[in-house]
Structure formats: structure tokens, C-alpha cells
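Long-time lurker, first post. I've been practising inverse folding by hand and with some scripts of my own, and I keep getting stuck on stretches where the C-alpha cells seem ambiguous. Below is the full C-alpha cell string for one chain I'm working on. Before anyone asks, I'm not after the true native sequence, just a reasonable design that respects the backbone. If someone could post their per-position residues I'd love to compare against what I wrote down in my notebook.
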């Protein structure tokens, strides 16, 4: 339905209905209206509220004494409170939410006064200016509750918000239809943009204009692909309008921090349809803003994914398949600032993925673990990921069950035996470690120390 009004009329309507001043109402209108040749503005009423009741085991499991107390407190003070966003989506999918986010008509100041009056502890997590207050009920459970809001101004990363009591306006500012629903604690679902139907149809759509939602926060490009890998059953059923909006706005990712991009990319790599999604992302030019090369090795990536996806490889086990060298791993790290362990794993994969395993592959991988410097558990994890990459699954089970032994000789023991510290001590240790490996790690300290004189003679000859 198309509604026609003059700009002046709409300023009055928006400010009166939503409680905003006219300056704020003007900004809302600029985001929601488009000019027509006659000097009027045209508003498309896109939201059609659908409600339904749910009563599932997952929903009933939410009701702890702490949640009951929270809900009753808001009800007692005549404020609405509903579950918002991802938890609603998960409940509709039959998934028990890992955490709950709540939305409310109460302002942060009203919430703070309400919690103070009941002696409920709150935390200053610097979310108040965006409407979020965190409270702790019964000194046991934390709840985050956020005031309904709209984005008045955005720069592609951050938003200046205005509080509201209009559930539809808050729903409209969210990224995807499947994340824009609310659920009352009586089981009533409030769905303004067809999120529930999209879940049933396995569709991932932006709320309203894809370009507008993306320009509000360019990280939504990454979030789109993350949720596509969770929801969609068809690996290539993207809407052309969505892909066009992403292609036209992809450069906005340049201003998004590498850490935020990395969080989303890792989640994409843990989802479904990973090779197909990564191909689309490369075709749209997203790869350059993630620190990935212009031409990824998709033949290798497809092979690795197909062969080890069921083994749940880590993201930095998969990504090196797209990369050709250590330099490209370091280029990725420079952009996304991954952890030290993630970087080490990526370099380890690229350096050893083509190694000759010899006649005894198990021995080869065990030696890689025991030769590693530092933490043996971390070394074993890296080797296990390498085994997944190479699809040596018959070996993987044996390695997982194997406990790497600790080298029984240390430098202090050798120094006590008169081995000079420095280069000679290091060479003697290396010689003894070689004997230990030859014995398949069966020699103990006393047995290895019998080779010290032989090792010192060899060092002297050098």
C-alpha cells in the first residue's frame, strides 16, 4: 500500500506517533522516503505484523527463577520486555539459545531506577548510550536488556541512536529478517518483515533495502554470508538484488577493523556451503578486504573441504588451501590480526602440507609433534589439523589416542655432567634427542645419558 503525504504532514505524523522531535523526525523521513517528480514524498509501508504463539520445549526451558523475576519486574513497572534477535531465530529453528538478548520500552534511566529500587545489581558496560543495561538477578544470572531504538545517523560502523517505544521501528533497523523478530514471554511471536516465513523457506534476506542496511554497517556483508551458511539449503540461491547491493558497497569493508572481519570469516568457515560461499565472496571482490589474494586456489580448497569437513577442521586449517605461500598467510594476518596460535597453525600447514611422509606416516607425524618447541599439546593440535588437511583420517585416530612423551633429558642434567653450556650443550641435546627418536621414544634418561660421551666426541670433531 502506498501512502502519499506532504513533507510537512509526515513531519507531524512521525513526531507525534513516535515521540521524536521534528529534527529527528526529519532524519527518519529522509531514510524512509524517496522523492517523486511531483515534489511529494512516497512511503512504502513494507511491514506487515504477523503474530503467532509458540510453546516448545526449548521455549519452556528458558524459564528459570531468574528470568521469571526479571519479567515480573518489568511487568510490575508497566514496561514491555521481549526476547529479541538471534535467540528468537534459534527457538523457531528448534535450537536452545546459548544466550538471550532482551528489548524493552523502558529507557536506560528507567531501567536503572527500577533495578536500584529492587536492590538488583547492574554493571556499567558502557552500553547505556546505546540503550543497554546489564543486570544480575539473584547474584546468579546476568541479563542484557536494551531500549528500543532507531539509528538516526550511521557512518558504516557506528550509529547515533534515538530511543523509541515503537517495536516496528526497532525491528526495521536490524540487519536480516530472520534476526528482526521479537518474542513475548507469553509465547507470542512478533514478526514485522516475514522472518518466520524466511526461516521456513531457508531464505536469508535483508530487512527492506539491502543497500541501506549494508551502508548502516558494512560488516553486515559478512554477517549475510555467515547466516546464509547456517540457514540456506541451496548453496547458490542468493537473490540478485542482494548480490548487487554487496558488490556496490563492498569497499565499505575497508573501514571495518580486521578483528571484526576475522570473527565473521571464522564463523563462515564453520558453516555449510563453504566453498560455494567463498567463491561468491571472491567474485564480489570481498577477498581483498579480508587480506586474501586475488586468485585463491579453489581446486585445493574444494578438495580439502570435501575430504575433511566432517572432521570439523579449524578455520586456519581450511584457509591455507586458498593460499600458496607463507607470505600470503602473513598478508592475511596483517589484515585480520589473528591470534598467535592461529597464525602458527596457518604457517605450519603451508610448510608441511606437501612433506614426504615416508614408509611410516604415523612415525613422521609423531616426530613432528616431539620435535616442536614449546607446548606439546599445542604441537599435537597443529599436527592433528595437518592430518585432517591431508585427509589421513586412519592416522588421525591413532594420533589422537597417542600421548606425546616428554624428552627425559634436560640441559641442567648435562651441565652437572660437565658438558659446557652454550653450543656444545645444545649439540649434545640434539644428538640425544635423535637417539630417543630412533628408539621410538622408548629410551629413558639413564639410557640416553650413556650416549653423552659419544655425543661430545662428535661435537669435538666438528
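-- Answer (accepted) --
I ran through it position by position. Result:
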Amino acid at each position: 500500500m502506498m501512502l502519499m503525504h506532504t513533507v510537512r504532514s509526515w513531519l507531524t505524523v512521525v513526531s507525534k506517533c513516535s515521540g521524536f522531535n521534528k529534527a529527528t523526525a526529519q532524519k527518519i523521513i529522509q531514510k524512509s522516503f524517496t522523492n517523486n517528480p511531483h515534489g511529494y514524498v512516497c512511503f512504502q509501508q513494507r511491514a506487515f505484523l504477523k503474530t503467532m504463539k509458540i510453546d516448545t520445549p526449548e521455549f519452556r526451558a528458558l524459564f528459570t527463577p531468574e528470568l521469571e523475576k526479571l519479567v515480573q519486574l518489568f511487568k510490575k513497572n508497566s514496561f514491555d520486555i521481549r526476547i529479541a534477535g538471534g535467540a528468537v531465530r534459534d527457538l523457531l529453528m528448534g535450537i536452545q539459545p546459548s544466550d538471550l538478548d532482551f528489548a524493552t520500552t523502558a529507557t536506560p534511566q528507567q531501567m536503572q531506577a527500577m533495578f536500584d529500587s529492587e536492590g538488583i545489581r547492574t554493571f556499567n558496560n558502557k552500553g547505556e548510550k546505546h540503550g543497554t543495561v546489564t543486570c544480575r538477578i539473584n547474584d546468579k544470572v546476568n541479563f542484557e536488556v536494551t531500549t528500543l531504538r532507531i539509528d538516526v545517523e550511521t557512518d558504516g560502523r557506528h550509529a547515533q541512536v534515538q530511543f523509541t517505544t515503537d517495536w516496528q521501528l526497532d525491528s526495521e533497523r536490524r540487519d536480516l529478517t530472520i534476526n528482526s523478530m521479537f518474542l513475548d514471554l507469553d509465547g507470542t511471536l512478533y514478526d514485522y518483515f516475514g522472518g518466520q516465513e524466511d526461516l521456513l523457506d531457508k531464505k536469508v534476506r535483508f530487512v527492506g533495502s539491502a543497500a541501506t542496511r549494508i551502508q548502516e554497517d558494512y560488516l553486515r556483508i559478512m554477517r549475510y554470508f555467515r547466516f546464509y551458511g547456517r540457514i540456506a539449503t541451496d548453496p547458490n540461491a542468493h537473490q540478485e538484488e542482494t548480490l548487487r547491493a554487496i558488490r556496490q558497497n563492498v569497499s565499505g569493508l575497508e573501514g571495518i577493523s580486521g578483528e571484526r572481519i576475522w570473527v565473521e570469516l571464522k564463523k563462515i568457515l564453520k558453516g555449510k556451503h563453504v566453498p560455494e560461499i567463498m567463491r561468491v565472496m571472491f567474485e564480489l571482490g570481498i577477498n581483498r578486504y579480508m587480506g586474501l589474494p586475488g586468485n585463491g586456489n579453489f581446486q585445493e580448497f574444494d578438495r580439502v573441504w570435501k575430504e575433511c569437513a566432517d572432521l570439523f577442521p579449524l578455520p586456519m586449517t581450511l584457509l591455507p588451501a586458498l593460499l600458496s605461500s607463507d607470505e600470503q598467510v602473513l598478508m592475511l594476518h596483517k589484515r585480520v590480526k589473528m591470534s598467535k596460535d592461529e597464525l602458527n597453525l596457518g604457517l605450519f600447514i603451508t610448510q608441511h602440507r606437501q612433506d614426504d611422509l615416508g614408509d611410516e606416516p604415523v612415525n613422521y607425524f609423531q616426530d613432528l609433534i616431539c620435535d616442536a618447541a614449546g607446548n606439546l599439546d599445542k604441537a599435537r593440535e597443529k599436527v592433528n589439523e595437518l592430518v585432517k588437511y591431508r585427509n589421513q583420517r586412519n592416522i588421525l585416530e591413532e594420533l589422537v589416542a597417542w600421548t606425546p612423551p616428554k624428552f627425559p633429558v634436560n640441559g641442567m642434567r648435562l651441565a652437572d655432567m660437565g658438558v659446557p653450556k652454550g653450543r656444545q650443550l645444545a649439540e649434545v641435546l640434539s644428538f640425544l634427542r635423535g637417539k630417543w627418536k630412533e628408539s621410538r621414544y622408548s629410551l629413558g634418561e639413564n639410557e640416553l645419558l650413556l650416549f653423552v660421551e659419544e655425543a661430545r666426541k662428535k661435537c669435538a670433531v666438528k
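A couple of notes from the structure itself: Confidence is low (pLDDT under 50) at residues 1-19, 31-45. The first strand starts at residue 2 and ends at 5. Happy to go over any region you disagree with.
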